[in-house]
Amino acid sequence: SRAGKTPRRSAGGRESSMKVYFCGSIRGGRDDAELYHRMVAKLQSFATVLTEHVGRRELGDTGEHVTQGDRFIHDRDVDWLRQSDVVVAEVTQPSLGVGYELGRAVDMKKKVLCLFRPSSGRRLSAMIRGADNGDSFVVRDYCQDEIEQVLEDFF
Ligand SMILES: O=c1[nH]c(=O)n([C@H]2C[C@H](O)[C@@H](COP(=O)(O)O)O2)cc1CO
Fold first, then answer.
1. 130: in domain
2. What positions does the entry give for substrate binding (predicted)?
3. How many domains does the chain have?
4. Is 1 annotated as contributing to ligand binding?
5. Where are the beta strands (DSSP E) in 59-116?
């Protein structure tokens, strides 16, 4: 039952009231772009993803080609971060931009879910793993078969 919850805005349920800011590596490398794509698709089944471009397969490691330049990208993203209800980040591929977004999100007191794949052989930064407080900032280890389930469990 959805009683007591924020009503969805459209009867078709396509537009959700929940706004998710999804973070994934771009200039840090696009090795996991396919996984980001799956995560964004899953999130879009129940929320509005403000940064759906992060999951676009065509987006390469040079990033978006916007004539207004990097300041535009930065200011637009910080604005989207402010508007978001929840931040979901795939943090396996290290990315300065994702780390920056997470730091800003903590400062804005957003709810944050970080997803990391130990099977990568990498060790997650202490500044991310160590930020887990079991409440507003959660780091979840997962393997790629579980993507959809992990997101369902969290939301
Ligand atoms: O073109 C871009 N568009 C964009 O939205 N970003 C944001 C969203 C991503 O979660 C994050 C990726 O940072 P980086 O490029 O340092 O890996 O920064 C980053 C870039 C390129 O740095």
1. yes
2. 21-27, 36, 101, 125-127
3. 1
4. no
5. 86-90, 111-116
CATH number for the domain harbouring residue 31: 3.40.50.450
Segments forming the whole domain that contains residue 46 = 21-153
39 known member of a binding site:
no
What distances in angstroms separate CA 125 from CA 29, 83, 116, 140, one per listed residue?
Answer: 17, 27, 11, 13
pTM across the whole model: 0.91
Q: How far is the CA of 102 from the centre of ligand 1 (A)?
A: 12
* Residue type for position 54: V
Judge residue 131's burial from the number of C-beta atoms within 10 Å of its C-beta, 0-12 exposed, 13-18 middle, 19 or more buried. middle
Residue 32 Cβ inside 6 Å of ligand 1? The answer reads no
Question: How high is the ipTM of this complex?
Answer: 0.99
